Amino acid sequence: MTGPTFRFAPSPNGELHLGHAFSALLNRDLAKIQDGRLLLRIEDIDLTRCTPEYEASIRADLRWLGIAWEEPVRRQSEHFSEYEQALARLVREELVYPAFMSRGEIRAHIAAQPEGGRNWPRDPDGAPLYPGLDRMLGGRERRRRMEAGQPFAWRLDVGGALARVGRPLSWREYQDDGLTQVGAVDADPEAWGDVILARREIPTSYHLSVVVDDALQGVTHVVRGRDLYHATAIQRLLQELLGLPSLHYRHHRLLLDPDGRKLSKSLRATGLAALRSDGKTPDDVRRLAGL
Ligand code: GLU
């Protein structure tokens, strides 16, 4: 029997900080005690923000921490055609629709609602839900707009998708030790509304690439920050629609700055490069991360 497969999946759009170190070390520790594998995946679908320099610094920081991973590393920007295939399946099955409303049109639509849209539903990250008007467009009108070159994004018809699955979805969440199951968490993908799965400038999305890659790479255990807890609902739904296995999840605590805010890539003080040049050792980093 093969052991579990973990992954650390950073986006090379900035330097790693203490929070990333915590996540990477946790994945490594769990892989080690369970005799599992650790993969590194570079999530660089946003070619305007991700750079080879950041990727090189991520690798250098991880090596400095003493983390080893399997080569070759999967770099998402080299696999757009695989995400397109998954999207094509959802298009064929009419689970996604072309959404033509621009950001400005969405804002105006919401602002025109009672009380200026103040009660308009918001997603778990606080963004207003997509109005979903284009879900109702007829096939002919859709084709006409697409042929006329009107810009659009592919959005998941979340209601239709749930109806297709036909049963409530959940995922297995684990405790801090990564071994003890907390229990089944009910997935509520509708809380996100009709999310974008692909855009014109980026022919995929975080959600779509992650579920395709996790399955393709044989990942069994997803250990990542609490900020992605609710995103799991959409990912579970996509796994179900694409016939991909459901995984084990552990959403770990987030490291906070002295003001109680989540660490960010712009905060230099907790950057691994800064800590290293301050003379801190990998053991200091473990301690600072509370490991
Ligand atoms: N690439 C994502 C990030 O850097 C993490 C994705 C994941 O672990 O599912 O926040």
Automatic annotation (TrEMBL):
Task: Give the species this sequence originates from.
Answer: Aquamicrobium ahrensii
- Name used for this protein in its record: Glutamyl-Q tRNA(Asp) synthetase
Q: Does the keyword ATP-binding apply?
A: yes
Ordered alphabetically, the record's keywords are:
Aminoacyl-tRNA synthetase, ATP-binding, Ligase, Metal-binding, Nucleotide-binding, Protein biosynthesis, Zinc
Could you say which protein family the record assigns here? Belongs to the class-I aminoacyl-tRNA synthetase family.
Q: EC number(s) for this protein?
A: 6.1.1.-
Does Membrane appear among the keywords?
no
Gene3D superfamilies the record matches: HUPs
Glutamyl/glutaminyl-tRNA synthetase class Ib catalytic domain: residues covered? 7-265
Q: What are the GO MF terms of this UniProt record?
A: ligase activity
The UniProt entry, under PANTHER family, shows: GLUTAMATE--TRNA LIGASE, GLUTAMYL-Q TRNA(ASP) SYNTHETASE
**InterPro entries xref list:** aa-tRNA-synth_I_CS, Glu/Gln-tRNA-synth, Glu/Gln-tRNA-synth_Ib_cat-dom, GluQ/Sye, Rossmann-like_a/b/a_fold
List, alphabetically, the NCBIfam families matched: PRK05710.1-4
